[in-house]
Amino acid sequence: MSVTGINPIAAANTPVLNGTARIPAKMLQQDDFLKLVVAQLANQDPMKPQSDTEFIAQMTSFTTLEQGKTMQADISQMRMQQQVLQGMSLMDREVTVRSGKSDPVKGIGSGLDMDGQDIKIVVGDKPYALSDVLEVRFDKQN
Residue 62: which domain range? Predict the structure, then answer.
C-alpha cells in the first residue's frame, strides 16, 4: 500500500468543500451580511430569541457597511471631477509631459481624453496621464 505525504500547511490553509478547494473571499459583501442575518433569525432558538441589543448592533453594522460603500462611490466620483478640473486648467497652455523612454514632449494642451476612470491630457494628438505633466507655462499678458 502506497501512502503519499500531505503538506500540513497547505492542507490547513485550503478549506475543502464537497471535494473541491474553496477560495476564501477577501471581505464580506452586503448580500453576505444579509444572508447571515436571515440565517441567524431563521435558526434561532424560539425559547431564547435574539436580544434586541444584539439585533440592533447587527443592523448598525449593516448600515455602516452600506454607508461605507456609498462613501467609496462618492469619493471615486469626486476624484474623477478633480481630474477633469485639473485637465481643463491645462487647456490652451504650453505643457511639458513625460513621454516614456524618449525626451519629454512640449506642446499645447488641446483636449481631454476620458479613458474609463483616468483623465488624460491631449498634447500633439497623443493622450498623456495627468501625472506625466512635468511643467506648465503660463504666458503673462500685459
Answer: 10-39+52-142
